[in-house]
Amino acid sequence: MSIRSPDLVLLHAPAVYDFRKYPLMFGPIADGVPSSPLFEMYPIGFFSILEHLERGGIKVRIINLAARMLSDEGFNPEKLIRKLKPRAFGIDLHWLAHAQGSVEVAKICKKYHPDTPVIFGGLSATYFHEELIRYPEVDFIIRGDTTEEPFLELMKVIGAKSHASLGDIPNLVWKEDGDNAGVRINPFTHVPSNLNNFVNNYIYAFKTALRYADIRSLSPWKSGSSHWMDYPITPIITCRGCTHNCTFCGGSKSALSEYCNRKEASFRDPELIARDILKVTRYTRAPIFIIGDLRQGGEDYACTILDGLREETFENHLVFELFTTAPKEYFEAVAASVKNFNFEISPDTHDEKIRLREGKRYTNAEIEANIEWALDNGCNRFDLFFMIGLPLQTCASAMETVEWCGDLMNKFGAKVTPFILSYSPFLDPGCIAYERAEKFGYKIRFKTLDEYRKAMLAPSWKYALNYETEWMGRDEIVDCTYRAGLKLNQLKAAYGVIDQKTFKATEERIKLAIELTETIDKIMELEDPRIQHERLMELKPRLDSMLEYVINEKVHMEWPASKKNLRFFNLFRAAIGLYFRG
């Protein structure tokens, strides 16, 4: 069968491209997300870019190199890239953890396709655009959080389907004649407030998997024994931007205003959000994660979505975010509209003074009331996320937070699931605490993109941390993270949130992580770089065994989904196999 070459290949790199070769102790940096520390989960923007460009006549293929490399030790990404013949490559640099991997993948693209343009996008690419564009393997950067239309315009120019010039494309950063001396930064004018044309529709992506006979490359993550096609949780994004100003968040209102030119959050119409969710329920009964607190758009906005969901009955578990605590009526409205639902909130600390310092204005009593109202109305699970590395926070305070987690599990039972993590590997560039570090008690260790690229190759996550605080240095942040993880693991077992097998396995992993961290510290004291490398390579098999998780086993971050609920995806996989074998 002849499979047409795509016009654009969207490549997602692992955080460290050559992780198979390097001795790396990532630690718990990804213990709060479904993916591994290679962050193989590509941005949700891949789906909206693919759909918008496909509707504009541009054929797009997504290839998740990170997931492919993790799933198959024999997979050769260079060999695959060499065979590709698109008009352009698109590479995301959304999360800064990809600073090393994304640039290395760009180098490979240029190695085999020197005349094929390489296009970067994402929040980190936007923030570091002036430095990134000067890398020889980078031809274009599209700035902003809503790049679908400029991307389409650029692809039409590249394919000679448009008479527009590169200088006419908003948000574009480019090199005139490929020369660093001729860097051009077009006006940052494309910041749409109407998102209704950018839908939450995954059918286009599934069609491309059929077109290119490659469903493996579409998978957003591969972690441990769990694969996205076995647990196809689907995200639904409600807005671009945020109405809140958490001091540590690179996606806050203040941060996006400064480097993404988005002065106000923009929302997709609530009727369309409800329609998007219901459309997904017709193809799979797997969980649906609604990104963004529905109440950001106002109480009427949230109610309109919930009223729309009430029109149909479905089995999917919906996961709702809370950016602040909510009134009792909100939980009642959710329960009236959705059969299976879960909530999550990030109080970050038990200490209300610290929470207020980071921009969150709600109390512990309000959090406990929210948990009670949610569970009373049938909530299946209520997750809480706490952090280490906050302004004013000491390790003693972090341990008190863990004790409060125990109090919550004791009071409300096993449906309450707390997590505690350090801010790692990086405090977000662009966030208030990063840009005004001295005011908030932070010391920022890295400033340039090149420094972040090198940091990702550090043998231990401790050396990759880009910050310290007045209250905790790097050593104490790492030590406190492990101490808190051990204690919270014990409390989860005591209150029935995890079983004894999980408890013992997690405790062993944390203790191994502590041992390996101490061993790496001793190796780093050696003066001879050659001997350093030899000793680190001797540790590599043990370091690789820590790749999946350290503190939080991934399966305990999954919301309920029975095997029968995933029938569509199993049939979809089978259909692809039959189609291309027949």
Could you characterize the architecture of this molecule?
The protein is an alpha/beta fold and 582 residues long. It folds into 2 domains: 8-185, Response regulator (Rossmann fold); 233-564, pyruvate-formate lyase- activating enzyme. Helix content is 41%, strand content 14%. The protein has a 7-stranded mixed sheet with strand order 2-1-3-4-5-6-7, sandwiched between helices. The protein has a 6-stranded parallel sheet with strand order 10-13-14-15-16-17. Strands 8-9 form a two-stranded antiparallel sheet. Strand 1 (8-12), helix 1 (45-55) and strand 2 (60-64) form a beta-alpha-beta unit. The longest helix is centred in the C-terminal third of the chain and has 25 residues, at 500-524. The chain starts with 7 loop residues before the first strand and ends with a helix. The model is unreliable at 567-582 (pLDDT under 50).
